Amino acid sequence: MDISFEKIIRSVSLALDLAEISSSENPNCEKNISNVNFSSHKFYNHSKRTTYIALKLAKVLNLSNNSMKNLYIASLLHDIGAVNSLNASHTSSEFIKQHCIQGAAITENLPIFNSVSPIIHYHHENYNGTGPFKLKYDQIPIESRIIHLADMVETLYEENINAFKQHKDIINLVCENPLFDKEVLKAFLSIASKEMFWFDMENISFLDFILDNISPDIDDKLDLKQFESFAFMISDVIDSKSSFTAKHSRSISNLAFQVSKYVGYSEEKCLKMKIAGLLHDIGKLAIPTSILDKNGSLTDDEFSIIKSHVYYTKIILDSIEDIHDISYWASSHHEKLNGTGYPRHLTASELSEECRIMGVCDIYQALTEDRPYRKGLSHEEAFKILNHMTSDGYICEKAVFQLNGALKKINMKQSIK
């Protein structure tokens, strides 16, 4: 099974934009442009628009094909380290430095294109040496210098204002500061002088071909094992958003894998179930941390927002195209046999065995995990609740039996050791 690496990265960049939109703290509010308040910037399509600007600059600067590819991947992922920093109370300068470090560390683990790590590490360096790591001039990778300016222009851009009403102010603000490579700035002035550039900025949110037309060809594919490696990396990003769920995705993944082995699925399907477990909560990146970390009961409105996470899981994973089965299993883990689940209210006839297993694994893991407001339940207590849920027609009795059998098999192996 081969999976498009470009589609994977584009889907993750969508998830990252959702994460930044959902952040109430908006730690990007200070970016070294004096007298400008960035707190109103909503980060809609931030990764996509930053990537578009970066690629336009790179074409003027005649970057090599290899540099263009690295720039493309790095631009889409440049804020991947931000998710880990959104919970903390910190100044903007601390946020900027920390998310660069974390972004570099995360992307070092990419199964391919891990050479983008240093580009992301230094994408907030100022050309005059006043950035977080004090590099200056040619010490900063050219791709980082490009992303730095592209990121700034995107953050200055307001999606709810017509481009013709703001483009002169953006150009003036960028030109007044000594933060950017003069050649990169000259390239920006060249592209910013054309109305087409600003029309593209205005319409990129719903016209995907705008970015597609200038993106380098990324033909690389990941096999299922490489995709598993990638999913492990993303699961850490997902779980880092909430202080409640340090290893939740990995635990669900392991349970789903063990139950799949117990049932007798093929090696490929077992691996797919593991990946579905790792990615089942990727939609939680779109949920505000204040709701995810609330130490107490949720209001009806807050619960409605929480429910949307499985919708976003489906949207993000469906955009990869090559993994519709994984997306279906991952995004159905809150559905119930009697149609009372969410978000699609699927019924028994619409829920495959894999979906039922994933749902039962998620409930068991949630019940047995420690949370700040309660201690995790014992195995026996958890299964008492699961059995009641089967009696009430919510979850699959067979899937509960399969989970119990798999757990007994694990415990038997551990006792022998």
How would you classify the helix and strand content by structural class? mainly alpha
The overall number of domains is 2
In total, the number of strands is 2
Write the CATH architecture name of the largest domain: Orthogonal Bundle
Distance between the termini: 35 Å
The number of helical elements comes to 19
In N-to-C order, the SSE pattern is EHHHHHHHHHHEHHHHHHHHH
Report the biggest beta sheet as strand number plus sense, adding barrel if it closes: 2 strands, antiparallel
Average pLDDT confidence is 90
Fraction of helical residues: 55-70%
CATH superfamily of the largest domain: Hypothetical protein af1432
Strand order of the largest sheet: 1-2
| Outline type | elongated
What is the radius of gyration? 23 Å
